[in-house]
Every structure is written in structure tokens, then in C-alpha cells.
Amino acid sequence: MVFSSYSFLLLFLPIVLAGFAIATKLPSRRIPFVWLILCSLIYCGYWRLNDLLPLAVSILVNFSVGRVLVKDGLADTYKRLIFSVGLIFNLGMLGWFKYAGMFSDTVNTLFGFSWHVPAVVLPIAISFYTFQQIAYLFDAKNGLTREHQFIDYCLFVTFFPQLIAGPIVHHRDILPQFYGRRLSFDSSNLAIGVSLFVFGLSKKVLIADELAILVGRAFTGSPGAAGAGGVGEAELLTFGTAWLGAVAYTLQIYFDFSGYSDMAMGLGRLFGVKLPLNFNSPYRATNIIDFWRRWHITLSVFLRDYLYIPLGGNRKGKVRRYGNLIMTMLLGGMWHGASWVFVLWGGMHGFYLMVNHAWRAVFGKRDMGLTGLITCRGITFVAVVIAWVLFRAADLGEAGRFLTAMSGMNGLDGGEHIYKPLQVILIVVLLGVVFVLPNVQVMMRKYRPQFGKRLGWDGIRGLGTWRWRPEMFWMVVQGALFVVCLVQISRGGEFIYYRF
């Protein structure tokens, strides 16, 4: 039941909203919390009922460990021991469900063993709620959190708008919104929430799902077979086709993840909860450091605060710093999936970050004019496009085939035999959109749609004046977008980040 499905839009969400509206009118302020927890568990169980068991066990264990860690007077030695138990439990559960198969396959291949690991279905959202709770335990050990009620904690972990694909919410952002207050269902939250959701739905259904068709024509898979308008196995992928396919995927994952992030934030706001910003026009980044401050922001913050800094960060010399960057990004890549292509993708970004930091160490930070800005954004964008090939490829062989074609070794045609002129124009127009137009959070910044500070505008002067307002014009625009989305939804699929 993805957000962009009839079952969610026409059945699940209306029932949840109606029940929530009734619950907020009842005497106990806890009833809306209980209602949202039950609905979130139903949402998770809809995917696979068996996924509820690891989620429930994870919540019970982490809540219990957290309660012990926040007790006054507990010796540091015992705190470290109890935290270690919690950390081993979380990493052990994630490792068993997600990485046991990859590990055994690798060992078997390298050493000729025949280890057999039972097939395990990856529980939905385990990567997200595991990292979320590791951060909670880490801060509880360091005295940065307080004792929480079990209902508050359950909603913090299970809240369905962010459960499946993030953001990786931090307790300091969400739990204070629950302290001693009622969740509200009011017209302001409704207007902001619906607008965010419709903007995100439009990105997913009208743009990302359309681009998915173009991506499939260049990468292996439907409709990539010869005779279906794509590249067959016996047909060499050429320069133009490879680059158009790679850029199409770069745009697909942008609008897919950006759309999900807007929808999650909008759903949270419908229930009076502000979720943190997770996506901020990353293709306008001027370097890779800036890119990771804009792409999957909550994952970047987690990796920085709970991996890079504990490893030593930049405090132990340049060599150690660069080693920490590589290690952090390798593990960040592995977090996305149990495949060596994800590890290499993370390693590539770790290498990019090393180069970026080394460049700054030699040349320092400099003010750049318009030419410099365009050049830096162009170089960063090309680097990101190349890395996305690893992220999209099914295996190392496909990644190598694609990168070989992008280097021009298979010929320099323009991809005309796969992409029609209008499809090429669509790709060019969408590039203009991501580089030039303000994002949804900037358009709505007056109303602070996300948790945290208001976003500024970093684009062309004048375009930043695009503003959303709760008025008739936007109601008509969004109503029309929603109707068009309903017509197109049946051809779409799940969000890319639902796989992780």
C-alpha cells in the first residue's frame, strides 16, 4: 500500500483521518496517539503481517534498554555495557535479515565454501527504524534524552508517514512534539499537509513513473529487451543512449525521493506532527559536501553524528580523516542494500568527499561568480550521475557495461534509436526544473512546512518569489493535479527507497 495507490488514497487515509478527527475531540489526549499507533501497525502489516514481529521486538527491546540508560546514578561502566547490548541487538537483527545472504555468498565465492543461509525475507522498514533507535540509545547513554512514555515512544518509531522510507527521525525532533500536548486536527495543518502531499504525489506519479519507462529502455530489464524499444543483450549500449539513460535515472530518483519526502511531510502535518527536512534541491549543490547536506539529509546527519564523529572525524589528522570518510560512506552505501554495487557507490562518494576536502585544504573556500557557480554545479552533477549508475545497476557486470558505454568506447551515437525527440526534450526540461525552479519547501517557507529553520532561496533572483498560499488559485491547481494523478496512478510502482 504505497502512498501513490488507490487503496491508500481512497480507503486507508480517509479512514485514518476520520478516526483521528474524532479522537482529537475525546477527553483523553492519549487516544489520538493510540489511534495513530494502531493505524501505523495496520499499515506495516498490510505489506506483510510477519513484519510486525521484528518491529514489535525491536521497539520493546530498545525502549527497555533506553529506560535503563536514562536512570540517574547508573555508573558509566554499566551504561556502556547496557548500550553495547542494545547496539549488538540492533546490528545483529539488521545483519541477519539484510546481510547474512550477501556475506555467505561472498565467502562461498572467494573461498569455495558451500555455506547455506536460510532464505530470509527482509522486513519492511527495518533499516530505518533500526538506525532511528540506535541514535536514541546512543543519546540516552550520553544523557541527551529523557525517560519517555511507552505510547510516545511507539508513535515515534511506528508513525506511518515516515516508517517505510524515512526520514530517519531523531527523538529530539519528534518526541518533544508529544510532551503534554494534544495532537490537533485543524484547518491550517490540513491545508499545508494536503498541499505538500499533492505536490509530492504529482512528482511521483506524473514525473518519476514516466521517467521509469525511459530508464528501463537503457538499463537491463523491462522494457529493455530488443524488440520492445530498448537495448537487447546482443546490442551494444552506446554513448548517447547510456548518458540519456543515466540522466533519466538521475531525474527519476530525484523526483521519486523528493516526491516521497514531500508526501511524508504532508501526511505528518495532517496529524499535527512536523517531520524534519530530508531533501533540499541536491542537484543545485556546488560540491559533493554540499550534495550530502541536501540529499537524504537525515541519513547524512546520522552517519556524521553516530559514525563519522565517533570514528574520530577530522580530529586525528588528515590520513585518519580521509579513512573515516571512506569508511562512513562505504557503510552508508551498504545501508542501502546488501549488494556490492551499493558498497562501490558509497565508496565512490567517499572518494569524491576526499577529493573535495583535499581541494579545500589546498585552495580554501572562495567566492565564485556566475561562471564559477555554473561550473561547480555542472561538475558536481556529472559526478553524481556517474555514481548513480552503480546505484541503479543490477550487478557489477551491468554497471561496468554502462560505464564503458558512457566513456564512449562503444560508439558516440545520440540514442535516437531508443528515445524519441519528445522524450529527450522532456529530460532537458526536467533538468531545467531541478536546476532553476524553487522546491516545494521554498515555495511554502512562510508556513514552515518542515521541522526546523525556514529555508532560504539559493537560485535565480525573482524566481524565489514563487509562493504557495492557502487560497483559491492553489486549491484549483492542486485539485486538478490530484485528479490527473488518480487517472495515472495505475501504471506506477513503489518508491525506490521502499527497497531499503
TrEMBL record:
Which molecular-function annotation in GO is an example for this chain? acyltransferase activity
Does the record bear Cell membrane in its keywords? yes
The UniProt transmembrane annotation reads 6-24, 31-49, 55-74, 81-99, 119-138, 325-348, 368-391, 424-444, 472-490
Q: Which domain of life is it from?
A: Bacteria
Q: Which InterPro entries does this entry report, sorted A to Z? A: Ac/AlaTfrase_AlgI/DltB, AlgI, MB_O-acyltransferase, MBOAT_fam
According to the UniProt entry, what is the EC number of this protein?
2.3.1.-
Which Gene Ontology CC terms are recorded?
Answer: plasma membrane
Topology versus the membrane, per the UniProt entry? Answer: Multi-pass membrane protein
GO annotation (BP), single:
alginic acid biosynthetic process
Can you name this protein?
Answer: Peptidoglycan O-acetyltransferase
What is the scientific name of the source organism?
Poriferisphaera corsica
